[in-house]
Amino acid sequence: MSDKETKEGYHREDLIFSLNKPLTDKLKETAKQHGVTLATLIQAVWGVMLQQYNRTDDVVFGAVVSGRLSEIPGVEQMIGLFINTIPIRIKTHQDETFQELLIRCQKEMLEAEPFTCQPLFDIQANTALKQELIDHIIVFENYPLQQKIADSADQTDSPLQIDQVQVSEQSGYNFNLVVAPGEELVVKFSYNAFVYDAAWISCIKRQFTQALSTAAQHPHMPIADFSFLDATEKEQIVTQFNNTKTEYPKYHTIIDLFREQAEKTPDHTALVYGNMSISYKELDKRSNALARELIQKGFRKNETAGILAAHSPEFMISVLAVLKAGGAYLPLDAELPPERVSFMLEETQAKMLIVQKGLEQNAAFSGTCIISDAQRLMEENDIPINISSSPDDLAYIMYTSGSTGRPKGVMITNRNVVSLVSNSNYTSASGDDRFIMTGSISFDAVTFEMFGSLLHGASLHIIDKSTMLSPDRFGAYLLENDITVLFLTTALFNQLAQVRADMFRGLHTLYVGGEALSPALMNAVRHACSDLALHNIYGPTENTTFSTFFEMKRDYAGPIPIGKPISNSTTYILDTKGRLLPIGVPGELCVGGDGVAKGYLNREDLTNAVFSPHPFLPGERIYRTGDLARWLPDGNLEYISRIDRQMKIRGKRIEPAEIEARLLEMEGVQEAAVTLREKDGEAQLYTHYVGDHKKTDTDFRADLARVLPDYMIPQHWVRVERMPLTGNGKIDRSALPIPENKPAKRQDIILPRNLVEEELANIWKQVLGVNTISIDDDFFAIGGHSLKALQVIHTLKHQQNIDIPIDFLFEHPTIAQLAEKLYSKQLRAADEQHVIKLNQHGAQNLFCFPPISGFGIYFKDLALLLNEKAAVYGFHFIEQDTRIEQYVNCMTDIQPEGPYVLLGYSAGGNLAFEVAQAMERKGLEVSDFIIVDAYLKEQPLPIDAGNDESAAYLPEAVREKVMKKKETIRNIGHNC
What are the Carrier domain coordinates in residue numbering (predicted)? Predict the structure, then answer.
């Protein structure tokens, strides 16, 4: 229960306090009335507290007993250590009252008394938990030694005087609860300060005291209603932790604030896209022109318009245009399946669809379509549209995954958005900032990116996916464009930070959210970027993007908190009955405030289920997130898990039931269960199904891809004969078999045919975590996605010294296709650069001259063997008479001074010899000259172009060019 950094060892601290006499007397009275010992009562109270801390009805802790059973003759006269630790199990039943629990506990303890001499080690050995059976103990001192010694020192007439005695005891457990009897019960918490901090222990003290009071005052209370939240702590949570009110323009709309900003800084840059830069004045004018066109074509106030677009200025112009026309926009990412787009347009009753220029072929819409072209809009009528809107009018509808099998539309108002970005405690954006758009336009983080920048006079940079998914290119873009504010999903952050933890060093603020964070990666980035404000951010779409934030100012070993509520938001931890829970007790995280959405479109039943009346602010509402969390003593929140089956994949929230519903619509599927499992540190979707054995995983993926976005398509498929069931007849998801990680027996595998295909296959196996792969497998059909593609591109660069944009993999998704593309790139490099570095590091350089094919890539295997020993450079054959001079110049550029080591293979041996002679004539020292399988100059080169083993390493499309090079080299060889 500590958020401290993990430290080795044991540093003992004690917290000692007394229960006042009235409470002590009441506890004794309650115990006597129910025929139980005071120790039993205290153990029962502690057990109920532990149950609430751990969300279970069954807990075990240790208790120390004297071990002196009365059945042992003469036991009172024996000297020795008889004490023993035994496990105490507190299990409660539904509808049981506290007094019923008390009586049952006393009965069970009396029945167990004859066995209290059983060694703890033997008990642990016979349980599944072994040494983890108990992790702390309770000691009830029947004879408080220290107090008796102190009392005897005060009795001057005592025949035995004891003084200057110090007693110190320490168990091997990190927490011990010791209770000493007396007119006032004395309680001591003895704990390891490296594990528990003082704030937690102080909190437990207050709660334990309240729990004892509740038990003494209300023994008839049902366990389900038992609470140890006192008035002080309730006030702390409701008032102090949620003191978030700030002034902001709550009576203004998004367009009100944007127009104010455009008038204030008309010439300041609003949008940057490649070489295009659009000022606030231009953005205002172009969105005016599109808004006017919308109205002229029949769009009316409070209607919905879809926007089908990718990352582009056109998307931003379209958003502002719809808002200016008094409507709500529906963001539709161009990568969404057409069927999903059609469903959203139909459910929202969108009157118009704005389509980004170039995406017209993706638009299947029976209503009015308008093409958004930033260039064309410069020439249109840009007179402002004067349509009055209210802060309570809808701004947009954002779809999230739905448990019924269809997505649900979240309705967000203007006020929701304005409260998110205006005068809030988590951001201080200004005109000096430069934001960057990273998320899909259908992902709610884009709301913060767009309006967090444009309503504060900042610049918003829009980049393509290939740049964002390349750590080197993205890092360079951040630095070159002086980006100051960035939001990343946890999954993308992890991929980038693993490659380059320092790539964020130029930022002022980095927000990361969507899933639980990796402490190791966050720590690494914090150290690499010392001036960076690094935030863990949390929030559901239903509360307008962000609800809480936490700035990470030190290293963490355990879970990183999600922080405190943002301005004008409130957060509470409630139980299933909507009651406030104490600090440290897990419950459902519920959010309130001005960010709470209007509800779900056309889903009144679901809206009423999760949008509830505010428990503390009459007239307001809260949203029940379905997330399990708890308060920390300092007012920060810690996320624990989901309560329901909802999942998060790459920062996007999904309902497995939606995927299951789609699967059951498919021919040949009788039953389906979708689960989330960790594989190689990544959350991945698994599908178990009962159905047609003739359909392949590829068939299922292709069918799902027509109706679901890529992040909702499972990576793993397991066919089962029947589903395991629970006692009540439901699918037992915990019993679904985990597929063995062994090669699948496939008959259709095409093995790599050349060196490049073999290297690509090895990289794909490593990244995708598979053992078998065919060169015609589609990367994205066998478990790949954009973040996996990033890993492939990074590995190619740093292992093979091949730098390609991520688009290559999207455009050429099979090994065979990508190998062809890479070889074409290598051939162009041969004509332009003449040399390729084949590994990363080495104590010295080795310059290699090519065989008859004329390409330095043939030394790749040698380079891998010599990595760390020699940096291997492979020369391509230069088809110019000045080739010798060019080779010498190239080597001296790489290594200005000797000695030099040259290697020539086959025809390259003759070439290397000529180069070595030229170098010595220039006074350059060649220390080693290595030739392999070369021929004397007088002999013609034995070339048989149709039967060359090296040709087997090349893709078919490349061989023609190789043969031409061979002919050139052969002629040179004959002329030597």
Answer: 751-826
- For residue 855, which of 799, 783, 782, 905 has the smallest C-alpha distance? 905
Mean pLDDT on 29-50: 94
Q: Distance from first CA to last CA of the chain, Å, rounded?
A: 80
CA dihedral 195, 198, 204, 208 (to 10 degrees): 120
**Amino acid letter for position 197:** D
Q: How many of the other CB atoms lie within 10 Å of CB of 878? A: 19
Q: In Å, how far are 127, 755, 827, 971, 972 from 946, measured between CA atoms? A: 72, 19, 20, 17, 19
pLDDT (0 to 100) of residue 830: 46
854: alpha, beta or left? (left if phi > 0; alpha if psi -120 to 50) = left
Q: How far is CA 912 from CA 122, 309, 972, in A?
A: 76, 56, 13
| Residue among 780, 717, 706 nearest 744 (CA) | 717
CA angle 388, 390, 391 (to 5 degrees): 140
Q: What whole-number distance in Å separates Cα of residue 65 and Cα of residue 83?
A: 6
Say yes or no to pLDDT of 954 above 50: no
Q: How confident is the model at residue 131 (pLDDT cuts 50, 70, 90)?
A: low
Report helix, strand or coil for 784.
coil
Classified as helix, coil or strand, 813 is: coil
pLDDT tens-digit readout, 474-528: 999 999 999 999 999 887 888 888 888 999 999 999 999 987 788 888 999 999 9
Per the model's pLDDT, the better-predicted residue between 371 and 318 turns out to be 318
In the chain, DSSP finds a helix count (H) and a strand count (E) of: 29, 37
In sequence order, which ranges of 611-753 are alpha helices (DSSP H)?
A: 656-664, 697-705
- Number of Cβ within 10 Å of residue 53's Cβ equals 17
Compute, in degrees rounded to 10, the torsion defined by CA atoms 780, 786, 788, 790. Answer: 130
The values of phi and psi at residue 446, to 5°, are -65, -25
pLDDT, average across residues 43-67: 89
> In 443-540, which ranges are continuous DSSP H helix?
445-454, 465-468, 471-480, 490-499, 519-528
> CB within 8 A of 122, min separation 6: which ones?
none
Residue 574 phi, psi (nearest 5): -120, 155
- Domains (ranges, CATH) in the chain? 12-154+167-228 (3.30.559.30), 244-251+424-654 (3.40.50.12780), 254-389 (3.40.50.980), 664-727 (3.30.300.30), 755-825 (1.10.1200.10), 833-975 (3.40.50.1820)
Look at residues 753, 754, 724 and name the one whose alpha carbon lies nearest to residue 736: 724
CA-nearest of 28, 411, 381 to 185 is: 28
What is the spatial distance between Cα 210 and Cα 229, in angstroms, rounded to a whole number? 7
Averaged pLDDT score across all residues of the chain: 84
Q: Is the dihedral of CA 294, 298, 303, 307 positive or negative?
A: negative
Cα–Cα distance measured from residue 557 to residue 862, given in angstroms and rounded to the nearest whole number:
42
pLDDT per residue over 295-325, tens digit each? 999 999 999 999 999 889 999 999 999 999 9
Does the bond joining 87 to the residue before it have cis omega, within 30 degrees of 0? no
Cα 321 to the chain's mean position, in Å?
Answer: 34
- H-helix or E-strand spanning residue 314: helix 313-324
Q: Which of 230-236's residues contact partners 24+ apart within 8 Å by CB, and which partners? A: 230/206, 232/206, 233/206, 233/207, 233/582, 233/583, 234/580, 236/583
Exposure string over 601-612, b if 16+ CB within 10 A, otherwise e: bebeeebeebbe
Give pLDDT tens digits for 880-929: 788 899 999 999 988 999 899 999 998 889 899 999 999 999 999 999 99
Alpha carbon distances (Å) from 752 to 748, 757, 814: 13, 5, 11
Adjacent-strand bridge partners of 178: 139, 188
Split at pLDDT 50, 70, 90, the class of 403 is: low
